[in-house]
Amino acid sequence: MRYKITAPDSVDATIDLPSSKSISNRALVIHALTGGRQLPDNLSDCDDTEVIIAALRDMPYTIDIKAAGTAMRFMTAYLAVTDSGEHVLTGTERMRHRPIGILVEALRRLGADITYTETEGYPPLLIRGTRLDGGFVEMAGNVSSQFISAMLIAGPAMRKGMELHLTGSIISRPYIDLTLCTMRDFGADAEWTGPDTIHVGAQPYHPTPYFIESDWSAASYWYEIAALGANESQIRLNGLTDGSRQGDSAARYLMSVLGVRTSFASTEMRRPTTVTLRRHPVRLPRLEFDFINQPDLTQTFVVTSALLDIPFRFKGLSTLRIKETDRIEALKREMRKLGYVLQSNADNDLIWDGTRCQADAHPVIDTYEDHRMALAFAPAAIRFPGLRIDHPTVVTKSYPKYWDHLRSAGFTIEEEP
Predict the structure, then answer these.
(1) From the CA atom positions of the chain, what is the Rg in Å?
(2) Which of 215, 296, 349, 370 is labelled catalytic?
(3) Rounded Cα distance, 155 and 175, in Å
(4) Which residues are registered as beta bridge partners of 273?
(5) Are 62 and 82 in contact, with CB atoms under 8 Å apart?
(6) Tell me, what's the pLDDT at 376?
(7) Phi, psi of 372 (to 5 degrees)
(8) Does residue 86 contact residue 63 with C-beta atoms inside 8 Å?
(9) Contact, 43 vs 53, CB < 8 A?
(10) Please, what is the average pLDDT of the chain?
């Protein structure tokens, strides 16, 4: 399937954003460890969250988490530290090529019984669950914060708790902090005790009512629309919070330098409210930023910056190589279709120095089974009327109502075979 997208002259819309996938997935696994009955409120309806709900509810022998990377990491730790019996944890073909060895080895050092059923270091995994004693363990901090978060979430289920020491540089630290905050919301004793060490006490979670705020990652695509759109456009986003613990809430500050102003209807901390976006054109000669703490915003800012004719150098992107696709190479290929020649280097920096090429007459964006490719490129229809997106249903991984929301904002979306 393919969508042909045509943008309106201006946008005046109110959008009910999806709930945070990151918080939903953390809260679900923590909730399961409490043994409570009442699920968190306002859970995300995306594919990644649905597979965790189904796995925890049904607990089949073979648990297929499909393309959900967070589910693979979190469920690995959950199954390893609970008396959950024996399970095979698997996923899509791409998932079976996404490394998980760092997490598995850390769990094994604490006594977990995990076996690779096909390729060493990669799913599928055969996991025989048992409650672990816990204790001191080291783990690389520069590969994926989801490995770290999975270990932390499992910590309170261990008899002696856990002392987690992170080696090397630590990436996506806001996601680790989000995990710790969510754990504490459920009664855990978990905190940084040094710049690279986290203590998780032997204090079990307890059931608690929990409400999930809206998703700042989803909001970033509406910021992109505001940045690329007409000056008179006005976009209202419901359910966001000021002072959010989500790492991608940094989008509001980053987009301010690209000319998007953010106004909160209420600034009461951590209370959902309506955020209004308005464009205030600025002329930025160049943008440099290290996305080590917000890697999922990279595609949004690559497309936005280039289409605003702002050269950039983005760093901290090494984890993009092991996402749903190699996002660095995917961005280089797809941006060339729009006439922008991007470069990368050995440090995985992504660079656009202003070099242009002939754009495709009728560009078709490939999505590589990666939801964020579709989400980030769709707003480019503002500058490329009739832009086509292949396999658009991939957005259900994180933002199932995205196309409906674009239509409600005045975008014309035509389905093509």
Answers:
(1) 21
(2) 296
(3) 17
(4) 240
(5) no
(6) 98
(7) -75, -20
(8) no
(9) yes
(10) 96
Residue for token pair 């229809």 = 381
296 is an active site residue: yes
Question: What order do you get walking across the sheet with 197-200 strand by strand?
Answer: 135-140, 162-167, 197-200, 190-194
Tokens of 207: 């059931």
Tokens 């242009």, residue?
Answer: 356
* Residue 240 in tokens: 């966001």
Q: Which residues of the chain, if any, have pLDDT below 70?
A: none
Q: What is the pLDDT of residues 334-349, one digit of tens each?
A: 999 999 999 999 999 9
Return d(Cα 225, Cα 222) in angstroms, integer: 5
Residue 123 tokens read as 């799913």
Which residue matches tokens 């809430």? 249
Tokens 């995205």 belong to 402
Q: Encoding tokens for residue 338?
A: 């729009």
Question: Structure pTM?
Answer: 0.92
pLDDT in tens, 250-259: 999 999 999 9
Q: What is the pLDDT of residue 143?
A: 85
Q: What amino acid is encoded at 155 in this protein?
A: G
Within 13 Å of residue 177, how many CA atoms lie on the same side as its CB? Answer: 13
Q: Residue for token digits 């769990």?
A: 107
Structure tokens at 216: 């700042």
Secondary structure in 3-state letters for the chain = CEEEEECCCCCEEEEECCECHHHHHHHHHHHHHHCCCCCCECCCCCHHHHHHHHHHHHCCCEEECCCCHHHHHHHHHHHHHCCCCEEEEECCCCHHHCCCHHHHHHHHHCCCEEEECCCCCCCCEEEECCCCCCEEEEEECCCCHHHHHHHHHHHHHCCCCEEEEEECCCCCHHHHHHHHHHHHHCCCCEEEEECCEEEECCCCCCCCCCECCECHHHHHHHHHHHHHCCCCCEEEEEEECCCCCCHHHHHHHHHHCCCEEEEECCCCCCCCEEEEEEECCCCCCCEEEEHHHCHHHHHHHHHHHHHCCCCEEEECCHHHHHCCCCHHHHHHHHHHHCCECCEECCCCCEEECCCECCCCCCCEECCCCCHHHHHHHHHHHHCCCCEEEECHHHHHHCCCCHHHHHHHCCCEEEEEC
What one-letter code names the amino acid at 192? Answer: W
